[in-house]
Specification:
It is a single chain. By secondary structure, the chain is an all-alpha fold. It is built from 6 helices and no strands. The chain is about 85% helix and about 0% strand. It starts with a helix and ends with a helix.
Length: about 140
């Protein structure tokens, strides 16, 4: 039998649901008591259902391999999503950097073409900032 305790525990929730679907006479408490113990689980199913050991083992092998395949597919989907998300972040960052660079170049060109107006704007912005800081300091 290729089924082992580690495989069974790794996909227990999916396998437990499949066992309940196939052998509805098993209770949650019974399944919980056999969790991770392949021999105990097979014995329990045999006693409750009368099925052969090989049929039970074959079904459990199939159920765990399906669960493992689903986990593998989910892992791949997550990898694809994170790869796509990282590409989006990288592209957005690059676009923002290019936009900043273009804004800086436009500002630099404006200062070159109109140095006096640029100086007046900077002086005005500094004056306003100074007034705001002074008002905040006085209010404390």
């Amino acid at each position: 039998m290729s089924l082992n305790a580690q495989t069974l525990q790794g996909s227990w929730n999916q396998v437990k649901g499949k066992i309940r679907d196939r052998w509805g006479e098993l209770t949650d408490d019974e399944l919980q008591s056999a969790r991770g113990n392949v021999e105990q689980l097979v014995g329990l199913i045999q006693r409750k259902t009368g099925e052969t050991r090989s049929a039970i083992e074959s079904y459990l092998d199939s159920a765990t391999s399906t669960g493992a395949a689903a986990i593998g597919a989910t892992t791949e989907a997550m990898k694809d999503y994170f790869h796509s998300a990282s590409e989006t972040v990288r592209d957005t960052t690059q676009d923002a950097m290019e936009s900043m660079r273009a804004g800086y170049e436009e500002t630099e060109e404006f200062v070159r073409r109109r140095p006096m107006e640029s100086l007046a704007v900077c002086f005005g912005a500094g004056l306003i900032a100074g007034v705001i800081v002074t008002l905040v300091m006085r209010s404390k």
